[in-house]
Amino acid sequence: ELEKLGLRDDVDLHVYEVPVEYQTVQRLIPALWKKHSPQLVVHVGVSGMATTVTLEKCGHNVGYKGLDNCRFCPGSQCCVEGGPECIDSIIDMDTVCKRVSALGLDVAVTISKDAGRYLCDFTYYTSLYQSCGRSAFVHVPPLGKPYSAEQLGRALQAIIEEMLDVLEHSEDKINCQHEH
């Protein structure tokens, strides 16, 4: 839906479907960062428990025990051995949430600090680690529960445009403290 709507004119939007597979995530996310060198990557995942559009503040490195779609689970139960326990997005999600909520869209937007220790959280952490925090993750509820594809597309469009605005006004605060 977002691909149909697009983003502002100065943004190149690349949309990829990431399989629910730990090993694919570990290979694909760094490859996409290398290929595109993006200003920001925004991951979107469906959560059967979500009733709002949820902005995730951080990704977690350990605690991955669930089997993926290939019936695989990392033996270490972590994303990056020796990596920090938690990495925060450099995007101020509270500000993004307030701004998007003020737009009066017919979609509720909330904040979370726990993306669930499954492939969404694993993908988010992997991307945050790769990008020194220049990533975001948005959980959406399943289609029709309660929002339509059009509602979610418009909400994602507004969220990403606000994230880009927040990022552009915080560039001087960014530093990376780990090596890839």
UniProtKB/TrEMBL annotation:
PROSITE patterns in the cross-refs: PYRASE_CYS, PYRASE_GLU
Catalytically driven reaction(s): Release of an N-terminal pyroglutamyl group from a polypeptide, the second amino acid generally not being Pro
Pfam families per the UniProt record, alphabetical: Peptidase_C15
Biological process annotations from GO: proteolysis
One GO cellular component term noted in the UniProt record for this chain: cytosol
Keywords: Cytoplasm, Hydrolase, Protease, Thiol protease
Enzyme Commission identifier(s): 3.4.19.3
Keyword Protease: yes
Enzyme class: hydrolase
Single Gene Ontology MF annotation: pyroglutamyl-peptidase activity
Subcellular location: Cytoplasm
Active site: 56, 120
Function: Removes 5-oxoproline from various penultimate amino acid residues except L-proline.
Similarity section: Belongs to the peptidase C15 family.
Quaternary structure (record): Monomer.
Protein name, per record: Pyroglutamyl-peptidase I
Source taxonomy: Eukaryota, Metazoa, Chordata, Craniata, Vertebrata
